[in-house]
């Protein structure tokens, strides 16, 4: 059985404000913004090129057992890019308050920049230069083809 990670519910205090932030400042695509069942509005947004989305909606938390996470309580969410300088320039141009790139080690995959959404959920953007020549979707397709 294969499992794919495709949607991460994100705790926010204001769905419209969060939708606008992720769409306008971070550049995510709005896939869904509708009441999917009476009383349950879902806003699903996907980063360009990603197979995983975020979902915003109050009713999401009532659908699963456990405690409801507080808005802003998610930390360590991570996006990956092939060129962190170009990514930072795009985010700054969109008006996002984002850190300077931080290089933690010299190898590929060790440079990050950071930002927070309006509620304080923390994100990092990791530079993985290898993705320019080897996009993840192609690597995964090749792996899947090799299994058959």
Strand order in the largest sheet = 1-4-3-2
Q: Which segments are poorly predicted (pLDDT under 50) over 5 or more consecutive residues?
A: none
Radius of gyration, in Å, reads: 17 Å
Order of helices and strands: EHEEEEHEEEH
Largest sheet: 4 strands, mixed
Gross geometry: globular
Could you characterize the architecture of this molecule?
It contains three helices and eight strands, in the order βαββββαβββα. The chain has helices at residues 15-25, 84-93, 136-147; strands at residues 7-9, 29-37, 40-46, 53-56, 77-81, 102-103, 111-116, 122-127. Strands 1-4-3-2 form a four-stranded mixed sheet, covered by helices on one side. It has a four-stranded mixed sheet with strand order 5-8-7-6. By secondary structure, the chain is α/β, with parallel strands linked by helices.
Question: What is this entry, summarized?
Answer:
By secondary structure, this protein is an alpha/beta fold.
Essential attributes:
single chain, 148 residues, alpha/beta, 4-stranded mixed beta sheet
Topology:
Elements: E1 7-9, H1 15-25, E2 29-37, E3 40-46, E4 53-56, E5 77-81, H2 84-93, E6 102-103, E7 111-116, E8 122-127, H3 136-147
Parallel strand pairs: 1-4, 5-8
Antiparallel strand pairs: 2-3, 3-4, 6-7, 7-8
């Amino acid at each position: 059985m294969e499992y794919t990670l495709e949607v991460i519910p994100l705790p926010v205090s204001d769905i419209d404000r969060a939708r606008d932030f992720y769409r306008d400042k971070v550049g995510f695509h709005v896939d869904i913004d509708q009441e999917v069942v009476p009383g349950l509005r879902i806003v699903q947004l996907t980063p360009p090129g990603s197979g995983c989305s975020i979902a915003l909606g109050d009713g999401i938390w009532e659908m699963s057992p456990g405690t409801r996470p507080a808005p802003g309580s998610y930390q360590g969410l991570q996006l990956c890019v092939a060129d962190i300088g170009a990514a930072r320039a795009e985010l700054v141009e969109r008006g996002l308050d984002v850190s300077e790139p931080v290089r933690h080690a010299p190898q590929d995959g060790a440079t990050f920049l950071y930002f927070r959404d309006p509620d304080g959920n923390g994100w990092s953007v990791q530079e993985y230069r290898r993705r320019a020549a080897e996009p993840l979707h192609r690597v995964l397709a090749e792996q899947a083809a090799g299994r058959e």
